[in-house]
Amino acid sequence: MAVDTEIETRTSAADGERPGAARAAIAGVLASAVALGVSELLAGIAAPVPSLVVAIGGAIIDRAPPSLERTAIEIFGTADKVALVAGILLVAAVSGALLGIAAARRFSVAVAGFAAFGLLAVLAAAADAQASVPLALASVALAAAAGLGTLRRLLDAAPARAPVEPTTREPRGADRRSFLRLAFGAAALAGVSGVVGRMLQLRSQVSVARESVDLPAAGRDAIALPDDVDLDIEGLAPYITPNEDFYRIDTALMVPRVDPASWQLAIAGMVERPYTLTYDELLALPQVEIPITIACVSNEVGGGLIGNAVWQGARLGDVLERAGVQVGATQIVGRSVDGWTAGFPTELAFDGRDALIAVGMNGEPLPLEHGFPARLVVPGVYGYVSATKWLSEIALTTLEAFDAYWIPRGWAKLAPIKTQSRIDVPRGGARLEAGRQPIAGVAWAQQRGIAKVEVSIDDGPWREARLADALSDDTWRQWVLEWDAEPGRHVLQVRATDETGETQTAERAPVMPDGATGYHTVRVQVT
Ligand SMILES: Nc1nc2c(c(=O)[nH]1)N[C@H]1C(S)=C(S)[C@@H](COP(=O)(O)O)O[C@H]1N2
Ligand SMILES: [Mo]
């Protein structure tokens, strides 16, 4: 029998009895929560200290098979990151519970377990260009020590599992209370350090640095918006998308915090004279301010992953010309501080379109989540091939030599934005009153321009909508059609024709591999 070994290995509970499995599990969960909380706090105190959860989550995102990543986005939508973090916390809780139970018999198992998880986090942080490995090691050691210390104390205070002889139960009440007190204390410590750590991370120095940036004036006066770009219809997307309403898409679990004082942009690869630009040098280059509608390839027909902003920055072509692009360099690859990449044909920087290294968005320095301190904006192609945020390098290469982040994951190498249109008013499923009702929305065909928008009601003839103005072919255009709505159920459809005369196709295609097609269709009820 194992009686001997049991006596040998029990290490907890001062009176020589092991706590019950439930309490050991609770102790383990709380210990792992304290470790994670302490890690968040340390990450909040010093920016280069990685948060364990973020480091592990980032490593998972980078290694996830494309199909899984897609499924996650399909299931959770833009909450996919929240789901990932929740998953990591769940695994941490379950592992903590198991370690707690094991530690009640043999505490060294918990030490090994925390060390193993810590090592995993350090490895994950090592793959993260923004994290410092020595600081990761130090913070992991502190977090693990806090977790193990918590576990030790909780196990020591945990009352033994109900003994065979009910008479010995009496004195256990005091134990139970002290266990509960310690457990609440540990939960509070984990919660407070986690929340405070998160808050500190958000209000990091970078936000402060961003707020102190004084954008130089662009070459001409800030764009004055003519009235006729906005139809002012309630529910219709405004011509300029406010920064706080602008869609956000990226693989970054936590917004990279880039200190503009130490940031540099390298112009590298197949160029004659590689060089780097500091933030101040970039701001000192001739600035332009240009409205451009950018869109995500994952935008479903009728979806909101598109927005129009006035971008300020330097012309990409100018910056590259100074380096001297070598003959045969057919691809421009933008690399982010977090290692993410996007690549597009070199000619897009020189064919006359307004490809920018943007530093400003709607009159402000780029918001952190939109790429502070600098990003690329290339009109006419989807964001995943062009719009690198938190830009750290622009490298010239060939189209054959390098595939950027999303290409091996099954998305098209070349990704011109497709002509599309969307109905914003009325909303799908809306109940309307009979009578005159506007049907309104936006349409876009960057680089070509919108020539015509037509609406069909209940599969009837296509009727031409009235177009608002647009500042250029690179922005979307609002449109409206007045409709005499009669009672009943109705189906509204829209289609756009671009300035080349091409009408968008009715054929439905999924977003994969190069953007959705089909007509946006909205069903409403008129009473
Ligand atoms: N560093 C980095 N930049 C990125 C991405 C990313 O994942 N990482 N995603 C791209 C994609 S897919 C799109 S659609 C645009 C979205 O830009 P926004 O978030 O400012 O709207 O950013 C692009 N730039
Ligand atoms: Mo995207």
Helical proportion, percent range: 25-40%
Bound molecules: ligand MTE, molybdenum atom
Q: Which whole number gives the mean pLDDT?
A: 90
Largest sheet strand order: 2-1-10-5-6
Shape: globular
Class by helix and strand content?
alpha+beta
List the total number of helices.
Answer: 12
User: What is the terminal separation in angstroms?
Assistant: 80 Å
Question: How many extended strands?
Answer: 19
Parts with pLDDT < 50 across at least 5 consecutive residues: 1-16, 164-170
Strand content: 15-25%
- For the report, how would you describe the main beta sheet? 5 strands, mixed
Please state the CA-atom Rg, rounded to the nearest Å: 29 Å
Question: How would you sum up this structure, described in words?
Answer:
This protein is of the alpha+beta class and 527 residues long. The protein is built from 12 helices and 19 strands. A 5-stranded mixed β-sheet has the order 2-1-10-5-6. Strands 3, 4, 7, 8 and 9 form a 5-stranded antiparallel β-sheet that branches. Strands 12-19-18-14-15 form a 5-stranded mixed β-sheet, with no helix packed on it. Strand 14 (450-457) and strand 15 form a beta hairpin. Helix 3 crosses helix 6 and helix 7 (133-157) runs antiparallel to helix 8. The longest helix is centred in the middle third of the chain and has 31 residues, at 172-202. It is globular, with a radius of gyration of 29 Å. The N and C termini lie far apart (80 Å). The structure holds ligand MTE and molybdenum atom (MO).
